[in-house]
Amino acid sequence: MNRRHDIDALRVIAFALLILYHVGMVYVVDWGFHIKSPTLLAWVEWPMVLVNRWRMSLLFLLAGIALGLVLIRKSPARLIGNRSWRLLLPLAFGIALIVPVQAWCEARMLGTYDAGFGSSLLRYLQLRPWPAGTFTGAEYGFTWNHLWYLPYLWLYTLLVLLALAVLRAIGGGRFAGWLTTRGRWLLWTVPPLWYLFALWVLDPRFPSTHALVGDWFNHARYFVVFAFGLLVARSDPFWSALLHKRVRLLWLAVGSGALYLGLRAMGAWLPDAAYLELMPLDAWRTVVRVIQTVYWWTALLALLAWSARLLDRPSTWLRYASEAVYPWYILHQSLIVLAAYWLIPLHLGALWEPLLVLAITITGCVLIHELLIRRIGWLRPLFGLPMRARMQPTARLNEAESVALRVP
């Protein structure tokens, strides 16, 4: 079994998109974020909408695949302990010392706090509630902001591994084998049908909060792809079928994405009366949800298929980038918010300000990762890396384990 370099590469691409997306959040119109520039860019919304419909689902899908690859070598009990360490320690560290700068910048921009960052950090580390509205999550005494992915991933991992332990104890492994062979049609159809149900029933009732508790729509769409990734990770028939369908999946994703954007544009540009003359409101909602579901599912499958076709090859940059993904993920949003906080008062305009925010973010990630995190043994686990750099594995299963543990 050879290493799945495509999963590594797709993860790196997904997190690169995440950095661009969060820079865009500073400038997109009408989307809330921890800091907003007065230099808003209306055009940014359109590519962000396309990416937003699948970007986080892709990360959970890849995490499920990574877990599926490593399950062949480690018991669920051992993986629970390992994953808890690799996810919860960086989460606690990030909440305590990485995210607070976002809260401080947000409060300063809102005018709800006027002291310096040192005073803010000392107050924040007391974990006492702040006055509501001071910053996002102030009423809880702390915030995890972009690090919400880590507790969600930990919860899904815990649930899946506990379920697997129970299934193994009662002989349920046969069902998993049937599902990835003769029952493959369920793998192709259940996730999008479940997502459509979630859009219809859960999305209107449970808006996205990233608070873990009560965030039912997000749990519905993210857990299903995480479980799907776990099931198909080592299924050769699935990957063969996926490669065979890659062209069809690409066209379906492009076509449904264009149609979804077109309908969204119609809703933005047509007067309400003209919009409703064409079709009743409930019918419009049904059409949009169905098309969004098709786009979500075919985009995810197309990304897997074309990555397996084009990116499954080793490279030096990929080995380096795969290690850098986790530290960059932890650092990037705090650097974005801090850079925007510094640059907004300079009134640099719609070109230079976002470019400099992006440049400062990337430079900061490179320098902090390369000069500090990679080289200081005790610092590495705080950013999700092993205490010492791993030797380059030679067999797929060893490398798959390395991939799976380089979460997120």
Automatic annotation (TrEMBL):
Residues annotated as transmembrane: 12-34, 54-72, 84-104, 153-173, 185-202, 222-242, 249-270, 294-312, 324-344, 350-373
Pfam family, one: Acyl_transf_3
Xref: PANTHER family: BLR4337 PROTEIN, GLUCANS BIOSYNTHESIS PROTEIN C
Protein name: Peptidoglycan/LPS O-acetylase OafA/YrhL
Limits of the Acyltransferase domain: 5-369
InterPro entries: Acyl_transf_3_dom, Glucan_succinyl_AcylTrfase
This protein's UniProt keywords: Membrane, Transmembrane, Transmembrane helix
Species this chain originates from: Luteimonas terrae
